[in-house]
Specification:
Shape: globular
Number of helices: 12
Number of strands: 19
CATH topology of the largest domain: Rossmann fold
Oligomer: single chain
Distance between the termini: 54 Å
Radius of gyration: 21 Å
Helix content: 10-25%
Strand content: 15-25%
CATH architecture of the largest domain: 3-Layer(aba) Sandwich
Structural class: alpha/beta
CATH class of the largest domain: Alpha Beta
CATH superfamily of the largest domain: Peptidase S8/S53 domain
Length: 480
């Protein structure tokens, strides 16, 4: 079928992204674009009434604890007995003291709202209408010009010799997804998607970040190619349109994705965090509980390493990049070319260091002497408040470890699809780590960790292993 296109380029914003999220009980009803934007604009900045607290129970959530919270005037928003965590509002100072003193309560901390991804400010966008879907996505309209990333990791070589992610479910915990975009239509499992964001109770993406991330994992191959064309996506909105979200929303999002059967969870979000921040250490422990829960249920968790240019081999002991440096997480740094040369260069913004970054993948960059093609190309949400992407066939260029991570999530989906007899997350992890290309000819490089991913190599990995662990001191003792 012949390509028909209308391409308009305008400088708008280079997006450097990272992120975190949340959870609800029912599938959202899609609003119209106008209604969604109107509702979001009327509620920007709010997170619901009253302060939310995160309670970590010692040995599961007992009926007595629920009763005590209700009697103290608390309103339980979410409870996850599988990890012993409750989110509650409406507790007075005296009630907090009483609950904290209980023998069945390990900790009570005020929930924290964090800017997990930067605000949208500028990117290059283009519109396109393309041919029908195909699993060999080399015919995608923009693949030849913009998608060097697929060729570098050999995803294009894997398309016709693997199951291309068929049968695998990848849950994107982010700002939502636009399920109407031409490259995402039919890819999103709406019955396994939800929003944890109080002010945006629908999965549609009012930012752009979640849609951009998602299409790198799986797309229809019209305007753009993807790593795992036949994988299914689920949208778990944990960040609002400004890129902010709470710890409890991210925790709930991980539990939700695990419960609906995710094979892979992608967290293109994060922050470089001081554990001396009031309540931070305990909130991080609750987040680790959720990740441990996912891992026990065979879910591989992939996260962006961070965009703070930090050498994690030498970072101060009181600082941690979360969720990237937590246990049972594959942390992904970013590589990029300059003027389409030397494609495995460390991106100028990327965190690095083998103690905190496991593998690298294309994240894009735009530096002096470079060209716009050095960035990563992906879909833009038609619901975006920041770009005119209303056609449903619009694309952006951006850079960040946020956009490196979904390459690894897609790679995991390809592996999962080909070795479904073994559901352990450790198998996916081992295949990804042991088949990466050594950027510096060192098996374990102090800067690049295991190297830059290679999807074709990983797809042929049939071995078994026990995973890679983390640097001692990074692993929290709470193994619940």
């Amino acid at each position: 079928m012949r390509h028909t296109s209308h391409i308009g380029l305008s400088l708008a914003a280079i997006a450097y992204g990272v992120l975190l999220g949340g959870c609800t009980e029912q599938s959202p009803v899609a609003p119209t674009r106008t209604a969604a934007i109107s509702e979001a604009r009327g509620a920007v900045g709010g997170q619901g009434g009253g302060q939310r607290y995160v309670i970590r129970a010692r040995n599961g959530i007992s009926p007595a604890l629920r009763k005590a919270l209700t009697a103290a005037g608390g309103s339980i928003e979410r409870e996850h007995d599988s990890i012993g965590v409750i989110a509650v509002r409406g507790l007075s100072a005296s009630a907090l003291s009483s609950i904290t003193a209980r023998s069945d309560v390990e900790d009570v901390e005020q929930d924290m709202v964090v800017q997990w991804i930067p605000g949208a400010t500028s990117a290059i966008h283009a519109t396109v209408a393309g041919p029908s879907s195909t699993s060999d996505q080399s015919g995608a309209y923009f693949f030849p010009q913009f998608q060097w990333n697929m060729r570098v990791i050999r995803a294009n070589n894997a398309w016709l010799v693997t199951r291309q992610g068929k049968g695998a479910l990848v849950c994107i915990l982010d700002t939502g997804i636009d399920p109407t975009h031409i490259d995402l239509a039919g890819k999103v499992a709406l019955d396994k998607s939800t929003s944890m964001v109080v002010n945006e109770p629908f999965i549609e993406d009012l930012n752009f970040h979640g849609t951009f991330v998602s299409a790198l994992v799986a797309s229809n191959g019209l305007g753009m190619a993807s790593v795992a064309p036949d994988a299914r996506l689920c949208a778990v909105k944990v960040l609002d349109n400004t890129g902010t979200g709470s710890f409890s929303d991210v925790i709930s999002g991980i539990v939700f994705a695990t419960d609906v059967g995710a094979d892979v969870i992608n967290l293109s979000l994060g922050t470089y965090f001081s554990r001396k921040e009031p309540g931070a250490r305990e909130l991080i422990k609750s987040l680790q509980r959720a990740i441990n829960f996912a891992n026990r249920h065979g879910v591989l968790v992939v996260a962006a390493a961070g965009n703070d240019t930090v050498n994690l081999n030498r970072d101060p002991k009181d600082f941690i990049s979360i969720p990237a440096e937590l246990d049972h997480v594959i942390s992904v740094g970013a590589t990029a070319p300059v003027a389409q040369q030397n494609f495995d260069q460390l991106a100028t913004y990327s965190d690095f260091g083998s103690s905190g970054v496991d593998v690298f993948a294309p994240g894009g960059d735009f530096v002096p002497g470079g060209v716009q093609e050095d960035l990563i190309f992906s879909a833009c949400s038609s619901y975006s408040l920041y770009f005119d992407c209303s056609s449903g066939a619009t694309y952006l260029l951006g850079g960040g470890t946020s956009f490196a991570a979904p390459h690894v999530a897609g790679e995991a989906a390809v592996i999962e699809s080909d070795i479904r007899r073994d559901q352990r997350a450790q198998i996916l992890e081992r295949c990804i780590l042991e088949t990466a290309d050594q950027v510096t000819n060192r098996r374990r490089d102090p800067i690049f960790g295991r190297g830059r991913i290679n999807v074709l190599n990983a797809a042929s990995c049939m071995g078994k292993g026990s995973g890679h662990g983390k640097k001692p001191g990074r692993i929290f003792a709470d193994r619940r």
